[in-house]
Amino acid sequence: MLRALGIAVLLIAAVLGGYLYWLHRTRARYNARSLSAAPTRRDARRGNQPQTRTLHVPGCAKDFTVNVGELVQPQITPALSRAALDQAKAIYGKPTQSLNNGTLVWQQNAFTLIEAHPGKPDSSLHLTMQIGHVVQTLDDIELGIDSFNAILIKMRDRNLPVEQKLTHGNDSWTFTITVPSGCGPAWQSQYARTLPETPELDRETAPRITNGVLGQPQPNAFLNKLATEYTLTRLNPDPH
């Protein structure tokens, strides 16, 4: 009798422990997203409809309808004029760093924004996520939530072309997806993730030999990983 009672108590404790663990993980996932993002579409389906606002990004071909409170970035495009640079400083404040080559760095709570070669035709914006935050880009991609697979599916559903590239760097591998930007036809977006080189990653990315021909490195190891970097550039910068 006592033995049966003891087993029953242990089973109840195990079930309760499992429930508390599940509850903690659920709350952790929600809190991680809520650091920087508005209510999700799931919240909307439950009747918690978020309010929307219009976001104007100078240089983009159209305005954007976004959820109130949602962290949508970038809110500038690569600058070609002094006025555009002043606007960037009005939005993000004084740059955290100003490098010798003119590159500006804004260190924000959820991300780091770098503007390379501001005021020149080849200027670009590069955004890197901080762990635990979510940023929605102008392409409706959620950095911090969307894997490369999710990005590829979204682009396929929109019938947009995608260029994939896997490159080997200094003791690392970098996977990059290039797509047309939601900012307009003059722009392109790139989503990237860099992983440190390991023997296992080298095996997973090893090119395949087909009909005696060595192919390209395989990106499969990256497809279930989150994109953590975003770059906005002009498609055809004017050299003059």
Summarize the structure.
This protein is of the alpha+beta class and about 240 residues long. It contains 5 helices and 14 strands.
What does this molecule look like?
The chain is an alpha+beta fold and 240 residues long. Helices cover 28% and strands 27% of the residues. The protein has an 8-stranded antiparallel β-sheet, covered by helices on one side. A two-stranded antiparallel sheet has the order 1-2. The chain has a two-stranded antiparallel ribbon with strand order 7-8. It starts with a helix and ends in a 6-residue tail after the last strand.
Write the layout of secondary structure elements.
Blueprint: H1 2-34, H2 41-45, E1 52-55, E2 64-67, H3 82-92, E3 97-98, E4 104-107, E5 111-116, E6 124-129, E7 135-136, E8 142-143, H4 148-157, E9 163-168, E10 172-180, E11 187-196, H5 199-205, E12 209-210, E13 213-214, E14 229-234
Antiparallel strand pairs: 1-2, 3-4, 4-5, 5-6, 6-14, 7-8, 9-10, 10-11, 11-14, 12-13
Task: List the keywords.
5 helices; two-stranded antiparallel ribbon; 8-stranded antiparallel beta sheet; 28% helix; 240 residues; alpha+beta; 27% strand; single chain
Count of discrete alpha- or pi-helical segments spanning 4 or more residues? 5
Beta-strand proportion: 25-35%
Mean pLDDT: 81
Could you give the order of strands across the largest sheet?
Answer: 3-4-5-6-14-11-10-9
Helix/strand order, N-terminal first: HHEEHEEEEEEHEEEHEEE
Biggest beta sheet attributes: 8 strands, antiparallel
CA gyration radius, whole angstroms: 22 Å
Helical residue percent band:
25-40%
Which spans of ≥5 residues are poorly predicted at pLDDT below 50? 19-36
Please give the number of β-strands.
14
The helix-and-strand class reads alpha+beta
